[in-house]
Amino acid sequence: MEVERAGIIWLFENGKAPGEILKLLNMPRSRRKFVYRTILRYKQTGGVKDNARSGRPSSVTTPRLAKRVRERIRRNPRRSMRKMAVDLQVSRHSIQNVVNTKMGMYSFKRKKVHHLTDQVKQKRMSRCKGLLERHEVTNSQNDRIISATRASIPEKYRYMSCIQKPHSVMVWAGVSATGRTPLIFVPPGVKINATTYRELILEPVLQNLGQTMFNGEPFIFQQDGAPAHTANSTQTWLQHNFPGFIQKTEWPPYSPDLNRWTLQFGPSWRPMLAPSLIPLSSV
């Protein structure tokens, strides 16, 4: 390095430009900054020696240590910094300083991702495209028109109207392993309370469900904790007309509606329920 600097200064004093110095010394263009800085230091200080550095010089994070760490990482990029610190008899902080500051490298964790096969990827692609086409009318981000001005766009493509509180419909349905009930459409404007729930749904649909769907076999009726479901009149009606149902006092609070057995009672109650399906009220 000192020999190169001396050669640069000798050529500079003999009237050579930095570009000519690069060619005469067979230096690559990537070292052009080195030539300029050497000439600038010579102009400012009259020499090419390094300026005196403040503070204590590095005694651990030396170029020799950086080389040894670099070779270890090259052989095994998954090597632990803590283990390298033990092997090289330095602190873990010194290894981190060498890796992060001097080498510009960082430690990354492996991320958990879905195992996507080629078949799954193709299915995702086709279905996502289908969803975009299905919702493109309501998703303005996916519905763009290229035009010189907004006024030149047809009005039906220029605006997307939306309304507050659109019309809705309330539907009730029941499903089981043996089949499903017919859909029950609640008349518009009818508020579901204990009386309407019993008159519109329980009595006309579920009262004869044991014969129509389960052929007289016992079954358990499961519903969520809606006020109309937990009302005393509803609970009393279910006790008189159903062989078994989950009472409001038996329903675990904040429990998902359809995962009750799996999350909480499945492991302990499955052996008891295996021989036959029996009402929960008698367990």
From TrEMBL:
Pfam families: HTH_32. GO terms for molecular function: nucleic acid binding. InterPro entries: Homeodomain-like_sf, RNaseH_sf. It comes from the Eukaryota. This is MhmaT1 transposase. It comes from Oopsacas minuta.
